[in-house]
Amino acid sequence: MVKSSNITIQAFWVGLGSLSSFALALLSAAILSRYFNKADYGTYRQILYVYNTLLIIFSAGLPRVFNYYLPRYNLSQGKDIVLKITRVLFFCGIAFSVFLFSFSGLIAGILKNPELSIGLKYFSPIPMLLLPTLGIEGIFSSYKKTIFIAIYNTVSRILMLLFIVLPVILFNGTYLYAIYGWIAVSIITLMIACYFRRIPFKGVTIEKSQLHFREILKYSMPLVSASMAGIAFRSANQFFISRYFGPEVFAGFSNGFIEIPMVRMITGATSTVLMPVFSKIIHDKSDMTQLTNLWKNALQKSAVLIYPMVIFFLFYSREVVTVVYSEAYADSAKYFSTAMILNFFNIIIFAPLLLAIGETRFYARLHYGLAVATWVIEYIAILIFNTPMSVAVSFVVISILGIFIALIFSSRKIGVPFLILFPVGQFLKITVHSLASLLPVYLLVKLFLPHSSDLLCLASGAAGYLILLLGTARLVKINYLQLLIPLFKR
């Protein structure tokens, strides 16, 4: 039996690494948005958009293979699997770099930004250096050494922040200076990743595994198919905003239409830790109840952490955006508020559950359906309303619908009632308690600090909200501190 407390500890380290990644990425965006003009910043964000979109295709689903196969083999064979997949990722990185350099002009034409062609050419060596670094999370989570994920992510992201931001600040450079720094730090990151990959296998003699590349592809290719559909699904709103409203609007949209970093940190950490556990349970043909109990427990803990944050940022969306990106991006607050509605639902981490029970085909079909719906509906929304907000709302509605479809399918597949997998009562209780705790504080801040700085309003509101939320938690029988107990015991 896998202990929930142990999973909490492992998820904590993964989450801490993710938090450092998101925090440093946010800090980088906050700094660069102040040093670049909107056109340069929009081009820079378009480069990131192109890279992240194509990354899923060229990585071929291989980083997710570690979570699935490593728990099923011993350490000696695992060492062989890691080396085998890393070599393939390196060659995929070379192909990615060649593609970016060769088709930079075509991509720039599609997104209607001629400057993007120059940026992509300078950026093109980076995938060759970074793709072999992928999969660190899967390796260490499989061997329950997730503390190294936190160390690796924190160190590598701090270096990236320094190398990308400092050239821009010191030389008052354009976005190209940020790319020069990115190339330099990618070389260092590759060396660090090579060292970290050897940590679980110190003193272990390599043994040829019986896992052939054909079998790896048999598992990963459906994930690639689903990922490609996921790319089309997630990139539609950015494509339409970029093409129909220009780089300046795209810059504002990119800064606003984001998830709260803590939300992705929590759900990503939970998914990373649960996937190898689920894989082991399925492989050993253990009781399915063990799997569903772990999933439900993780979901409820995620809601306890996420819902209060979402409520707070919904009320303080404008202050958050202006503090992070400056007053010039105040208009991004409306996109930020819209995106946060999705956070009430995307805490449902159905991917590990579906993949563990072998439903990769449904997983792929779901993403293709969502992709088609998104491109069609968002295009219609532009024809009718011709506003960026109509694109944002369309994406959120379709995303929520997709989550419910996946959840209904999963509940039928494993024979569990829908309301057990999606405990509406518990979610409503947390939401109502969060609202009741925040509203008095919000009104008092607006009443007594009407002309104060956004930072002071945020700090005052957060402090008062936290005190009232934790102070009244016992009355509604919600233990917000229960997630910290295993960490202190550890």
What does this structure look like?
The protein is mostly helical. It has one domain. It has helices spanning 4-35, 38-58, 65-69, 75-102, 104-110, 115-123, 126-130, 136-142, 147-171, 175-197, 213-256, 261-283, 288-315, 317-325, 333-341, 350-356, 360-384, 388-414, 418-421, 424-448, 454-471, 485-489. Helix 8 packs across helix 12 (261-283), helix 14 crosses helix 21 and helix 20 (424-448) packs across helix 21 (454-471). The protein is globular, with a radius of gyration of 23 Å. The two termini are 19 Å apart.
Question: What key attributes describe this structure?
Answer:
single chain; 22 helices; mainly alpha; disordered C terminus; 490 residues; disordered N terminus; 79% helix
Task: Compute the number of helices.
Answer: 22
Give the class from helix and strand content and strand pairing: mainly alpha
Mean pLDDT: 79
User: What global shape is seen?
Assistant: globular
- End-to-end Cα distance: 19 Å
Helix content: over 70%
As for the number of domains, it is 1
**Low-pLDDT segments:** 1-5, 486-490
Radius of gyration: 23 Å
